[in-house]
Amino acid sequence: MEIPRHWRLKKQRYGLVGEVCPHCDYKIFPPRDVCPNCGDEAKELYTFSGKGEVYSYTTVYEAPAGYDTTAPYTVALIKLEEGPMVTAQLTDVDNSEVQIGMPVEMVTRKMRNDGDERGLIVYGYKFRPVLNEPQR
Amino acid sequence: MRKVAILGIGQTKIDEHWELSLREIGGNAAFAAMQDAGMDKVDALFVGNMLSPMINGQNQLGTFLSDWIGLWGQEAVKVEAACASGAAAFRSALMAVASGEIESALVVGVEKMTDKPGREVTSALATAADADYEVEQGISFVGLNALIMRRYMHEFGWKHADFAPFSINSHENAMHNPFARLHERITVEKFEKSSMVATPINLLDASPIGDGAAAAVIVPAERVASVKGKPRVVVAGSASATDTIAVHSRKDPLFLAAAYESSKRAYQMAGVTKDDIDVFELHDAFSIMAALSLEACGFAERGQGVRLGLEGEIGPKGRVPICTRGGLKARGHPVGATGMYQIVEVVQQLRGECGETQVDGAQIGMAQNIGGSGATIITHILKAE
To answer: Is residue A51 part of a domain?
Structure first.
């Protein structure tokens, strides 16, 4: 079990909190100390909208330990509308229906169990296809 | 810096060596290299390895191995850079000898992977990626390469079958390498029907893991004479470069910037261009990596690396011979040892010891070892004199 790690990453996992560079306004996710665009210091927090589109995807059949009970599942590179890319599982969609360019949005989901039945349930971000606005 | 020569090489067959331990496999390659060099003592041992703490419960691999092979008292250290650990160890040893700090070094790349079940090995391999932001999403190492391959196919319009020549070439060449893991010819039909690992990567796009070790002894070149039938092999170029640890952080996930950078520096140091390279042992951990490596090193335009395979240019008689001993795909990929297998194989080519897959008149060879999905890339250029 890695309780401090899960606690430390809570803003990123539950809120998609990254950074905005105070020098060049570049949006950064995951957060890092040096802006990848201008090389200056970056530490101002910025909350992403959670909207983006699928840049690439793969359906994983041979999963790492801890994830094998839910395989096969689809992991994608999501291009967020603010610019950066994030690696995330897709959810609420059939593996065979995923396409490059598909609009998706962030949701909070159970990721895995860390430890045995007395261990921690790890939650985090996944992305699902954008739901159509209800007709009024 | 002084010129450095590779005096001796050694390797073990890559396999599931149930009967052999980590120390025995490493030792066997080390003894073979020392014997080939005609030496029984070196100043220092550099070990390339990635997984021993996780799979074998063993750390401090430098001393672990120096003790086993009887180098008591000598300096020994392990160098780790995921799948590029082998080349990283070689480059560390090279810098130590070239600088004049030591007079001789033994480099051993070793990995013993079959002591744990497959899914635990899959987890251990994933530690090459970003633990917080990639691995936590359940992505496997294969999966990261699959994300790159899918996008590459989408952007450049290639079909899955277009990658088959890379795997077919590696399997064909491995038929003539007794140290290779796989001795089995494959066809496009078989390539297309193989079982899926992480779409679009199937089993025949992916290199097999295994237990294995490869080693080399290096000394200052001035100490080595060129003998007829066994030319002096020197290190003409060596460079290492890095990219972001996570694929999602790259400005262009379809371009191996670290391969471009390290090959550029290695060409410059060796005073050669890509046209001078007679044989290229590249890092075909997955078929897509072969294409991207060819592109980044200047052998193909962006998005066109696949074409070299389709046009039949990658075989031992082709314009750009790659993976002449089977590559990672069929020789096998004992991760931390792979970089040293590549060095050993280029030396074999330059010595003219490759039989059926010998590249005629090979004088200059290149080895390129990739750690992670392009995060650490180390390029070496060797020359026969």
So the answer is: yes
**Selecting from 3.40.630.10, 2.60.40.2150, 3.40.1160.10, 3.40.47.10, what CATH number does the domain B4-117+209-223 have?**
3.40.47.10
Question: Beta-strand (E) ranges in A9-130?
Answer: 17-20, 27-28, 44-47, 51-60, 73-80, 85-89, 103-114, 120-129
CB within 8 Å: A124 and B143: no
- B142/A62 CB distance under 8 A: yes
- For residue B121, list chain A residues with Cβ-Cβ distance below 8 A: none
**Residue A136 forms part of a structural domain:** no
Q: Does B209 touch chain A (CB under 8 A)?
A: no
What is the residue range of A96's domain? 3-129
The ipTM estimated for the assembled molecules is 0.95
Summarised one tens digit per residue, pLDDT across range B268-315 is 999 999 999 999 999 999 999 999 999 999 999 999 999 999 999 999
> What residues 111-130 of chain A have any CB closer than 8 A to a CB of chain B?
111-112, 122, 124
**Tens digit of each residue's pLDDT (9 = 90 or more) over B76-132:** 999 999 999 999 999 999 999 999 999 999 999 999 999 999 889 988 999 999 999
B383 C-beta neighbours (distance < 10 Å), count: 22
What domain count does chain A have? Answer: 1
Cβ-based contacts of A70 with chain B (< 8 Å): 138
pTM score of the predicted model: 0.97
Classified as helix, coil or strand, A34 is strand
Mean per-residue pLDDT over chain B, rounded: 97
Question: Is B135's CB within 8 Å of A77's CB?
Answer: no
Helices H, strands E: what count in chain B? Answer: 11, 11
| Residue A134: inside a domain | no
Instruction: Tell me the shortest Cα–Cα distance from B88 to chain A, in angstroms.
Output: 26
Catalytic residue (choose from B17, B171, B333, B380): B333
Condensed to tens digits (0 to 9), the pLDDT of residues A119-128 reads 889 999 999 9
Cβ–Cβ gap A75/B132 under 8 Å: no
Which residues, other chains included, contact A97 with Cβ-Cβ below 8 Å and sequence gap of 6+?
none
Q: Measured between beta carbons, which residues in chain B are less than 8 angstroms from residue A66?
A: 123
Domain residue extents for chain B: 4-117+209-223
Is B83 a residue of the active site?
A: yes
Q: What is the pLDDT of residue A131?
A: 79
Residue B183: active-site member: no
CB B154 to CB A62 under 8 A?
no
The Cα B111–Cα B383 span in angstroms is 27
Count Cβ atoms below 10 Å from residue B78 Cβ, excluding itself: 25
Answer whether A116's CB lies under 8 Å from A90's CB: no
